[in-house]
Design brief:
- With 299 residues, this protein is of the alpha/beta class.
- 36% of the residues lie in helices and 24% in strands.
- The two termini are 26 Å apart.
- Helix 3 packs across helix 4 and helix 4 (123-135) crosses helix 6 (153-166).
- The mean pLDDT is 93.
- The radius of gyration is 20 Å and the shape is globular.
- The protein has a single domain (6-242), classed as Rossmann fold, CATH 3.40.50.
- The structure holds adenosine-5'-diphosphate (ADP) and magnesium ion.
- Magnesium ion (MG) binds next to helix 1.
Length: 299
């Protein structure tokens, strides 16, 4: 916990009031470390984006603390907050909406350099843009002069990654970065994030509804349902030995080549699924340690 770049400590976020209160995040605790990735996994509505927005300081927690290098960000001075904002960069789900159609790719990368990299000036700017594009495995000669609509979804997401890297962040928050991409290019983007994490010692928060992809990028995993993290720890341990019924439910939705789809035993009955959801939504404070670095809420 001590060497974490960014940590959420018992963070809660509610929306609305009275009977209409939504508990979007309930006592969320996790930390991000240099050169490591945490996969935050859960179906739509489980509270993943709320956690991401709190980490980005777009939402202020209802209770609990966000810690930057061990210190509460709430108590930080303006210059520290500015450093934090630069240090934590986001990659969004929609690679189409996040680029301005009126500007070239070079322009998109020049802007963050101008704003945040006083060390890069004059002819260094174009050289840095070339380096950034090469880092994300795009050919600068071809891509830099192009407009967003001339690129594929996968290429655009690579540009978004390059843009995030331009400001030399310590943490990247990637909220479902491949869910709007063609299946054929998803793995390439995940592998790229994995490489960036290792080579640039980035802390990565990889948000996904697809638990099967967590293995490609994340050493650690947190499975979320109804605003709670229900199971967490080493990705391999959680996926190989899931303990919480909701984690098992998520894994049962992943196609298994050994199970025939027409096998009636292969699928949970709707009644069983509803029962798992009902039990998993209850507020639970008791934590079970299943093995070292593998925990779940008691059910
Ligand atoms: N700005 C908001 N105002 C009201 N409710 C919100 C807001 N953002 C999220 N929620 C609610 O919080 C819950 C979690 O949403 P979200 O964090 O977007 O989940 P996920 O990213 O896992 O799909 C949902 O019930 C959602 O409707
Ligand atoms: Mg979301």
């Amino acid at each position: 916990m001590n060497d974490a770049i960014l940590a959420l400590d018992k963070v809660t976020k509610t929306f609305g009031h009275g009977a209409a209160t939504v508990h979007a995040a309930r006592s969320i605790t996790f930390s991000l470390h240099a050169g490591r990735a945490l996969a935050l996994v859960g179906e739509s509505g489980s509270g993943k984006t709320t956690c991401a927005r709190m980490a980005m300081r777009e939402y202020i927690p209802t209770s609990g603390q966000i810690l930057y290098k061990g210190r509460p960000i709430e108590a930080a001075k303006a210059d520290e907050i500015a450093r934090y904002r630069r240090s934590v960069q986001m990659i969004f789900q929609d690679p189409f909406a996040s680029l301005n159609p009126a500007h070239t790719i070079a322009h998109h990368l020049r802007r963050p350099l101008k704003l945040h990299r006083p060390d890069v000036r004059g002819s260094q700017v174009d050289a840095t843009i070339r380096e950034l594009l090469q880092r994300v495995k795009l050919d600068p000669d071809i891509v830099a002069p192009k407009y967003p609509h001339e690129l594929s979804g996968g290429q655009r997401q690579r540009v978004n990654i390059a843009r995030a890297l331009a400001v030399q962040p310590e943490v990247i928050v990637a909220d479902e970065p491949t869910s709007m991409l063609d299946v054929s290019v998803r793995l390439g983007v995940l592998n790229l994030l994995n490489e960036m994490k290792k080579e640039m010692h980035l802390g990565l928060l990889y948000i996904t509804h697809d638990i099967a992809t967590a293995r490609y990028v994340a050493e650690d995993i947190a499975v979320m349902y109804a605003g709670q993290i229900v199971e967490w720890g080493s990705t391999a341990k959680v996926i190989d030995n899931p303990r919480h019924p909701y984690t098992r439910l998520l894994l049962s939705a992943v196609p298994d080549p050994d199970v025939r789809f027409d096998d009636p035993k292969a699928r949970l009955q709707p009644r069983e699924v509803a029962e798992i959801r009902r039990r998993s939504a209850a507020q639970v404070d008791e934590i079970v340690e299943i093995e070292p670095n593998h925990f779940a809420l008691a059910v």
